[in-house]
C-alpha cells in the first residue's frame, strides 16, 4: 500500500499482528483496541487523531511516525523506538514506556498521566508544555531536551539525568529528585526546587539547593547514627540538621554576592562550631 493512499477511521480490535510491517502507511483516526502488535513497524506512518486502548506495542518502531492528537489508555510501549516521532498533543494515561527510545521526539503539549517512563531516553526531545503528572521517570535521560513549561507534578524522577535540558518554567510540585542530576540544566530556578524534594545525591547548579525527601531523611539519619554511635537520638537529629544546613550554605556561598558572602561566612563559622560541639 502506498503512503499516499489514505485509510481513514479503520478499526482494529482483538487481533494479533506480531512483527507486522506497517511502515509508510496513512491511517489517520485509526482505532486500535485489545490488540497485540508486539515488534511491529510503524516507521513514518501517519496515525494522527487515532485512538489506542489496551494494546501491546512492546518493541514496536515508530521512527518519524506521526502520532499527533492520538488518545489512549493502557498502551504498552516498553522498549519501543519512537525516535523523531511527532506526538504533539497526544494524550495517553496509565501506559508503559519503560526503556523506550524517544530521542528527538516532539511531545509539545502532550499529556501522559500516570505513565511509566523508567529508563526512557528523551534526549533532544521537544517537550514544551508536556504534562507528566503522576508518572514515574526513574533513571530517565533528558540531555539537551527542551522541556520549557512542562509539568512534572508528583513525578518520581529519581536518578534521572537532565544533562543540558532546558527546564525554564518547569513545574516540580511534589516531585522526587532523589539522586537526580540537574547540575548542567538550563533555566532552573530556586523557586522550582522549593516545591520538590531530593537527597544528598541530588546534583544541582551552583547556588541552588533542595529540601530532602522524608524517606531520604530517614535513611540519612540512620547513616549518620552509624557514623556517630555515641550520640543520643535527639542529638543525632540535631547533628544531621546542622550537617545539611552546612551543605546547603556552602552551595549558596559559591554563587553569593560579595557583600552577602561575609555574613554567610560568619553563619558558616557558627554552624561549624555547633557541629564540633555536638561531636565532642
Quick take:
With 280 residues, the protein is α/β, with parallel strands linked by helices.
Q: What does this 3D model show about the protein?
A:
With 280 residues, the chain is an alpha/beta fold. The chain has a domain of 68 residues. Helices cover 22% and strands 9% of the residues. The protein has 4 helices and 6 strands; from the N terminus they run ββββββαααα. It has a 6-stranded parallel β-sheet with strand order 1-2-3-4-5-6, with no helix packed on it. Helix 2 packs across helix 3. The longest helix has 22 residues. The mean pLDDT is 87.
Question: How are the SSEs placed, and which strands pair?
Answer:
Elements: E1 11-13, E2 31-33, E3 51-56, E4 71-76, E5 91-93, E6 111-113, H1 190-193, H2 214-227, H3 233-253, H4 258-279
Parallel strand pairs: 1-2, 2-3, 3-4, 4-5, 5-6
Helix pairs in contact: 2-3, 3-4
Question: Which stretches are poorly predicted, pLDDT < 50 over at least 5 residues?
Answer: none
How many DSSP-defined strands?
6
Number of helices: 4
Average predicted local confidence, pLDDT = 87
Cross-sheet strand order for the largest sheet: 1-2-3-4-5-6
Distance between the termini: 80 Å
Let me know the largest β-sheet: 6 strands, parallel
Overall geometry: elongated
> C-alpha Rg, in Å?
23 Å
Coarse structural class = alpha/beta
Order of helices and strands: EEEEEEHHHH
Instruction: Give the fraction of residues assigned to helices.
Output: 10-25%
Relative strand content: 5-15%
Amino acid at each position: 500500500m502506498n503512503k499516499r493512499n489514505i485509510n481513514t477511521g479503520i478499526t482494529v480490535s482483538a487481533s494479533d499482528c506480531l512483527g507486522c510491517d506497517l511502515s509508510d502507511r496513512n491511517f489517520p483516526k485509526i482505532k486500535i483496541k485489545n490488540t497485540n502488535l508486539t515488534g511491529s513497524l510503524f516507521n513514518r506512518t501517519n496515525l494522527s487523531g487515532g485512538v489506542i486502548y489496551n494494546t501491546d506495542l512492546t518493541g514496536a518502531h515508530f521512527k518519524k511516525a506521526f502520532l499527533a492528537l492520538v488518545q489512549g489508555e493502557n498502551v504498552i510501549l516498553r522498549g519501543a523506538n519512537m525516535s523523531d516521532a511527532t506526538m504533539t498533543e497526544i494524550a495517553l494515561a496509565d501506559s508503559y514506556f519503560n526503556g523506550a527510545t524517544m530521542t528527538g521526539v516532539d511531545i509539545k503539549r502532550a499529556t501522559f498521566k500516570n505513565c511509566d517512563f523508567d529508563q526512557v531516553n528523551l534526549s533532544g526531545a521537544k517537550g514544551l508544555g508536556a504534562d507528566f503528572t503522576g508518572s514515574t521517570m526513574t533513571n530517565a535521560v533528558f540531555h539537551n531536551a527542551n522541556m520549557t513549561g512542562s509539568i512534572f507534578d508528583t513525578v518520581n524522577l529519581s536518578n534521572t539525568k537532565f544533562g543540558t535540558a532546558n527546564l525554564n518554567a518547569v513545574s516540580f510540585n511534589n516531585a522526587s529528585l532523589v539522586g537526580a542530576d540537574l547540575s548542567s540544566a538550563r533555566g532552573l530556578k530556586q523557586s522550582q526546587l522549593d516545591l520538590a524534594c531530593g537527597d544528598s545525591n541530588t546534583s544541582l547548579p551552583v547556588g541552588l539547593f533542595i529540601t530532602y525527601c522524608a524517606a531520604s531523611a530517614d535513611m540519612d539519619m540512620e547513616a549518620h547514627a552509624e557514623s556517630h554511635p555515641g550520640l543520643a537520638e535527639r542529638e543525632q537529629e540535631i547533628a544531621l540538621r546542622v550537617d545539611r544546613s552546612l551543605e546547603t550554605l556552602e552551595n549558596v556561598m559559591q554563587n553569593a554576592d560579595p557583600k552577602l558572602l561575609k555574613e554567610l561566612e560568619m553563619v558558616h563559622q557558627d554552624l561549624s562550631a555547633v557541629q564540633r560541639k555536638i561531636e565532642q
